[in-house]
Amino acid sequence: MQGWTEAGEREVIAVQQQVFVGIDVSKVQLEVALSTGEGFAVGNDKGGIAELVRGLRTAAPELVVLEASDYERAAWILWEAGLAIARVNPRDSYHFAQAR
User: Fold this and answer.
1) Among 69, 25, 65, 64, which Cα is nearest to 44's?
2) In a domain, 43, yes or no
3) Structural domain tally of the chain?
4) pTM value > 0.70
């Protein structure tokens, strides 16, 4: 982003983009979408969740949102890793997606 100094000179202002993450949880895999436009999938198992934690630590998201389900062991591991998480009602996320 560009701006102007008091002297009327142009300067570049660095703006840090906040990153948010949404995770679609299924029995077999976790589909991950970042607000930066990136996305990937990992297995919903120990190895996949460890890969997810490593990737999210690098992205440093403000918040990770995932649906509350029977297969959400990843939520607890992400929380234990120090990431901010929000578990949402699947019906609410479905209706939100339909409203777009």
Assistant:
1) 25
2) yes
3) 1
4) yes
